[in-house]
Design a protein that fits this description.
- It is a single chain.
- By secondary structure, the chain is an alpha+beta fold.
- Helix content is 35%, strand content 31%.
- The chain has helices at residues 23-30, 41-74, 95-104; strands spanning 2-5, 18-20, 36-38, 76-81, 88-93, 114-115, 120-122, 124-131, 137-146.
- It is elongated.
- It folds into two domains: 2-61, Ribosomal protein L9, N-terminal domain (Ribosomal Protein L9, domain 1); 65-146, Ribosomal protein L9, C-terminal domain (Ribosomal Protein L9, domain 2, Roll), CATH 3.10.430.
- A hairpin with a 5-residue loop joins strand 8 (124-131) and strand 9.
- It has a four-stranded mixed beta sheet with strand order 4-9-8-6. Strands 2-1-3 form a three-stranded antiparallel beta sheet, with no helix packed on it. The chain has a two-stranded antiparallel sheet with strand order 5-7.
- It is built from three helices and nine strands, in the order E-E-H-E-H-E-E-H-E-E-E-E.
- Pfam families: Ribosomal_L9_C, Ribosomal_L9_N.
- Residues 13-40 form the Ribosomal protein L9 domain.
- This is Large ribosomal subunit protein bL9.
- One of its GO terms (cellular component) is ribosome.
- Residues 43-82 form a coiled coil.
Length: 147
């Protein structure tokens, strides 16, 4: 019997695959657990359309992330902080501060997407990475100035 998997099934296939299984396996295991539906022409067509729509949405998100990356890398974000004589900060700049600086310029960046390797504790220019999408990362130019 041909079935369309609605979820990933170990040792059988992943969601959306059309596989050939024994009738009893399909009736007694896959169908009752909602892991598969019978493969009719209508179901196969419906699943293919869903996959195409999902791929189209993913490609649109990726394009938006690429455009945002170009805009972010062209910007210069300035943070005013308290610092001592030698240029060391009283405290440090964290991901929340960087996300707020981006929000002031109109960019919606989640603080959890900002990747700091070390805390920033000195005045001057710093490069900070922001993960925008799966494989797209922007490098922000953050300048710390004394208040």
């Amino acid at each position: 019997m041909k079935v369309v998997l609605t979820e990933d099934v170990k040792k059988l296939g992943s969601q959306g695959d059309v596989v050939d299984v024994a009738d009893g396996y399909a009736r007694n295991y896959l169908f009752p657990r909602g892991l598969a539906v019978e493969a009719t022409k209508g179901k196969i067509k419906e699943i293919r359309e869903k996959e195409a729509k999902k791929e189209r949405i993913e490609s649109e998100k990726k394009e938006e992330a690429k455009k945002l990356k170009a805009k972010l890398e062209a910007e210069k974000f300035v943070l005013k902080v308290k610092a001592g004589e030698s240029g060391r900060l009283f405290g440090s700049v964290n991901t929340k501060d960087i996300a707020e600086a981006a929000a002031e310029k109109g960019y919606d960046i989640d603080k959890r997407k900002v990747e700091l390797t070390d805390s920033i504790k000195t005045l001057g220019m710093h490069k900070v990475e922001v993960k925008l999408y799966d494989d797209i990362t922007a490098e922000l130019n953050v300048k710390l100035e004394e208040k």
